[in-house]
Specification:
There is one protein chain. The protein has helices spanning 20-34, 45-52, 54-71, 105-112, 135-148, 172-182, 211-225, 244-255, 260-263, 266-287, and strands at 113-115, 121-127, 155-156, 161-168. By secondary structure, it is α+β, with helices and mostly antiparallel strands. A 4-stranded antiparallel sheet has the order 1-2-4-3.
């Protein structure tokens, strides 16, 4: 985050489960004592580590952790549920589809689901526009999970979508119909048509553009052009991070009318991505 980034360091080869919270508390205490309170722009842990030096910071954390462990009044342990999930297909009154397959289902099935190693089950990925979702849609997803997921759970990740595992293949058409009713049946969930947009750029002083809105516009344009490559994902993060140039090239190619015909060729898109990544790798190696 921010206009300067630093490579992370490994504190130790392995942190036991019982030391995880002790370690976290130690880091928080050190940052609280030594953080830069005068210059809020530099009041970040990465600046403290960089100014202090990694070895010194590492030793401080390990010593502080020993103090926390010795002085903690109550032994702090993580409550980890190790009970295996029960995979039970929800009961259905009828397995019949009850009508024709909705339009767009085949495209959605190809770009928003993946086959699991468990026989007859698929994982479904619900596409959101830059991570935005309404309360009514959340309630609808909860009902869909109860009705269709044999696991009874959903997951969200950094790509700003919702993943539902253990959906039986016989239930996919009905699930897609439910998504259509709530406006969550957009295709392209596992392709480059779902860019990630940082909501913080609407208020961040370091942001150069509103990438949250930009992500939505790119998604709509890519869906319109049916650019659904599963080879790459276009990530629109904070605009002054590593993929800035890549985003710029893609946005220009998509939004400029003179480039619309060029961008329709998937090979061109892939070449653009490869060239940008090569550029960033070379820059990294030269810095080293």
């Amino acid at each position: 985050m921010g206009n300067r980034s630093f490579v992370g360091h490994q504190l130790e080869d392995f942190t036991p489960e019982e030391d995880l919270l002790y370690t976290s508390i130690a880091v928080v205490r050190i940052f609280d004592r030594l953080g830069d309170r005068k210059n809020l722009a530099r009041n970040r842990l990465r600046y403290l580590v960089n100014d202090m030096g990694w070895e010194k910071f590492q030793n401080l954390v390990l010593k502080e952790r020993a103090i926390v462990r010795a002085t903690q009044s109550v032994v702090t342990r993580l409550k980890v549920d190790t009970t295996p999930d029960k995979i039970t297909r929800p009961l259905k009154i009828s397995d019949e589809i009850g009508g024709s397959v909705p339009d767009g289902y085949a495209r959605w099935l190809k770009t928003n689901t993946i086959k699991q190693k468990q026989s007859d089950y698929r994982s479904v990925f619900i596409t959101l526009e830059a991570g935005d979702i309404t309360s009514n849609q959340l309630n609808a997803i909860a009902n869909i999970i109860r009705e269709f997921s044999s696991e009874g759970k959903a997951r969200s990740g950094f790509v700003q979508n919702v993943a539902i595992r253990y959906v039986h293949e016989d239930d996919l058409v009905n699930l897609y119909s439910k998504l259509l009713e709530t406006g969550l049946a957009k295709s392209g969930g596992l392709t480059m048509t779902t860019p990630v947009g940082c909501s913080g750029t609407t208020s961040c002083n370091l942001a150069l553009t509103n990438s949250h809105r930009l992500a939505k516009e790119i998604q709509r344009k890519f869906l319109e052009l049916k650019l659904e490559l599963r080879l790459v994902d276009v990530l629109i993060l904070v605009p002054n991070m590593g993929l800035q140039q890549l985003v710029f090239l893609v946005v220009v190619a998509v939004l400029e009318k003179t480039c619309i015909q060029i961008i329709k060729c998937p090979l061109v898109v892939v070449l653009m991505v490869i060239l940008c990544w090569v550029k960033h790798v070379l820059e990294y190696l030269l810095k080293e």
